[in-house]
Fold:
Amino acid sequence: MLRKLIVAALLLSPASIFAQVASATRGGELGLSAGAEYSNFKPDWGFSRLQGITIFADADHIFLNKLGIEGEARWLNFNKPDGQTESNYLGGPRYRLLRYHGLSLYGKFLFGAGLITYPGQIGTGSYFAYVPGGTVEYRLTHRLSVRGDYEYQFWPSAPGLVFTYPQPSNGLTPNGFSVGASYRIF
Structure:
């Protein structure tokens, strides 16, 4: 009789008493991080390098476990070779390709606006930009990470330095590296 009561009590008790939600044990919730980077980019011509700062925000686990979004603003105006500056305001998806302990590798595809002041201050312009890139991030603590970033930007409608007809323009393709740190807000 006692054995039947124990079996009945176990069968009728809620399963949540004996189980734990998997996302609570693995940390699958939304993650929001923000940070800053030092950027060093090569414009599409010459031997000069453009340097400046980038601020960014990353939101992970938006749609799927590995998919998130990234937004960034970059101002390359520390050194102004011949008066040239570039800046961009980009956003788009990022996907975690690999995670090994505290190291994560992300691929990203951003799009937005690229702004330029041409060398010799011969003109300015703002253009649509699409940007494939990658990020390597190493988590130092639960909240603090260091990261390195590479982007190859495409500004297809920018005229480059060819302003005379009939030479075709293939747009601009600045590219470069950034290093910095991020802080996980939640």
In short: The two ends are 52 Å apart (CA to CA).
